[in-house]
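Quick start: what a row looks like.
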Amino acid sequence: MMKHKPKSLTSAILIALIVIACIAAANFLGIGTIYSATRIGYVEHGGWRNWSAKYTMLHGQMKHTIRPEDTQKTLHIEVVTEDGSISIEITDKDGNIVFDEDNMETATYDVNVSENSHGL
């Protein structure tokens, strides 16, 4: 005889709806990382003011919102590529391109960010 547990099903649906609402809110507010990529050996660290990622293989596109401090004038970027290529495009909150490089090799970049660039 099967037992019906409506409370646990209701709880599971409620939790799923809350998770979906949180993800939608994060995307709307520009919080977090959005990706359409195959990732192998991927480890990410970051928050509102910084972001870093290491991976064995990445194929696709990723988007991450960074909010520099109000007094920050330079965005420091460190790229290490051992094999393959990577491209980085940085836009301000209005969609203006602040930095755009393709086929980047191991290098360090300092990008000037204006007071209007907060919400990169």
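That is the whole record. The first strand starts at residue 33 and ends at 40. The CA atoms of residues 88 and 101 lie 5 Å apart.
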